[in-house]
Automatic annotation (TrEMBL):
This is Conserved hypothetical membrane protein. InterPro entries: CBS_dom (IPR000644), CBS_dom_sf (IPR046342), CNNM (IPR002550), FAD-bd_PCMH-like_sf (IPR036318), FAD-bd_PCMH_sub2 (IPR016169), Ion_transp-like_CBS (IPR044751), Transptr-assoc_dom (IPR005170). Its main location: membrane. It comes from the Bacteria. Keywords: CBS domain, Cell membrane, Membrane, Repeat, Transmembrane, Transmembrane helix. The lineage of its organism: Bacteria, Pseudomonadati, Pseudomonadota, Gammaproteobacteria, Cardiobacteriales. Residues 275-331 form the CBS domain. It comes from Dichelobacter nodosus (strain VCS1703A). PROSITE patterns: CBS (PS51371), CNNM (PS51846).
Length: 429
């Protein structure tokens, strides 16, 4: 190579710098490529996208090839630069060549191509995929040999170089991704819906059901006029039918079936029993995600939640689960009638005691414990160990809760004062 003319050496040097820029851009573009967008292009039949997908299936081989190729051309460029420096300036040329080449490689072969590839990964990754396939094939014997050498080096230390750890995201990590995503692509409503879906894994039917004390049902032992009045005034499409007490349930009464009887002039107590539908019983603590699938498989829309003794604890419906998923979107129309949270001052809110702790945490940015009672009323009573009096205060790390109304064993209204952030590990004082 020493016999080559200076012009030829400069030409080879430029080719090496361009090749280094190619490897740098290809690596960054393929690693930055949106995998979902790539899958969409593959599904559409894009040939270049299919090539990229094949390369990314064996990322270790791709990266090893790029590393090998990049190091080869960089070392070659350094050698040629040193030869040019020696010819032009002697020993001083070696020092100048080292400095100049370092700057040129960093600027034109590393920083610039990688920055460009990070900005436009799709526009760069797809066109270079064909060339990269050929390069990977060409270097594959050497890459295979290097991988074997690496495995041999790690083996005495008990490290398996070929073991690939499956990197999955937890629910909390997925929530962080959703919350940190760009608002230009994810509206607040869409974020709430995605968060609602993610929370289905952590929530049980106990948190979404209509509790027993609020359950609307019909005692078929009542006189007929009272039953008709109750059906007429009902705000729900399904009612629990029972005798004497709700634990003696007979079935679910669908109001549309009652309307059918009315149009047939058959609305009588005996006919009412005929149209009762069997109840689906749901064990207490069933995750909402599992119950959603159960509703789908059983082709039903409601179930009675029972405890370990078979006592009815509440009613869970498909609508209850869907309302949780769509969150604030579904509750806007109801908020004017029965708002669960009313802002009184800057950081002081009147809160319905029956609100779920999960909803309260989400709306006010609190960290009230979720491993016990499901409602604010339940949390207050559990923490006090007795029924509270009006004005009773509970102090948590991020808020103060004051009881405003208590009746019939339930806190119906409370005041929540949100405290400014502070460094403390105490949950309650």
């Amino acid at each position: 190579m020493e016999s080559l003319p200076l012009g030829a050496l400069l030409f080879i040097l430029i080719l090496c710098l361009l090749a280094s820029a190619f490897f740098s851009a290809a690596e960054t573009a393929m690693m930055s490529l949106n995998r979902y967008k790539l899958k969409h292009l593959v599904d559409e039949g894009n040939i270049a996208a299919k090539r990229v997908a094949r390369l990314l299936r064996k990322t270790d081989r791709l990266l090893a090839t790029i590393l090998l190729g990049n190091n080869f051309v960089n070392i070659l460029a350094t050698s040629i630069g040193t030869m040019i420096g020696l010819r032009l300036l002697g020993d001083l040329g070696v020092l100048l060549a080292t400095v100049i080449l370092t700057v040129m490689i960093l600027l034109f072969s590393e920083i610039s191509p990688k920055t460009l590839a990070a900005l436009y990964p799709e526009q760069i990754a797809l066109p270079v995929a064909r060339a990269m396939q050929s390069i990977v094939w060409f270097f594959s014997p050497m890459v295979w040999l290097l991988n074997k050498l690496v495995a041999a080096i790690f083996k005495p230390f008990g490290i398996d170089a070929n073991h690939k750890k499956e990197d999955t995201l937890s629910t909390e990590e997925l929530k962080t991704v959703v919350l940190s995503s760009s608002t230009s692509t994810n509206s607040p409503e869409r974020q709430d819906m995605i968060l609602g879906i993610l929370e289905l894994e952590d929530m049980s039917v106990d948190e979404a059901m209509v509790p027993r004390n609020e359950l609307e049902g019909i005692d078929l032992n009542d006189n007929w006029d009272e039953i008709i009045t109750q059906i007429t005034n009902s705000r729900h499409g399904r009612l629990v039918a029972y005798r004497d007490n709700i634990d003696q349930v007979l079935g679910m009464l669908h109001l549309r079936d009652v309307i059918g009887l009315y149009h047939q002039n058959r609305l009588q107590p005996e006919a009412l029993l005929e149209i009762l539908r069997p109840c689906v019983f749901v064990p207490e603590g069933t995750p909402l995600r599992r119950q959603l699938l159960n509703f789908q498989m059983q082709r039903t829309r409601s179930g009675l939640v029972i405890d370990e003794y078979g006592d009815i604890q509440g009613l869970i419906t498909l609508e209850d689960i869907l309302i949780h998923i769509v969150g604030n979107i579904a509750s806007e129309s109801e908020e004017e009638e029965v708002p669960e949270i009313i802002k009184r001052q800057a950081q002081i809110f009147d809160v319905d005691g029956g609100i779920s702790l999960r909803s309260l945490n989400r709306e006010l940015g609190l960290k009230l414990p979720l491993d016990g009672p499901n409602t604010l009323s339940g949390l207050i009573i559990e923490r006090l160990g007795t029924f509270p009096e009006t004005g009773t205060e509970l102090h948590f790390s991020d808020c103060i809760v004051r009881v405003k109304q208590f009746a019939e064993g339930v806190v119906s209204e409370a005041e929540v004062e949100v405290l400014p952030p502070q460094n403390t590990d105490d949950d309650e004082s």
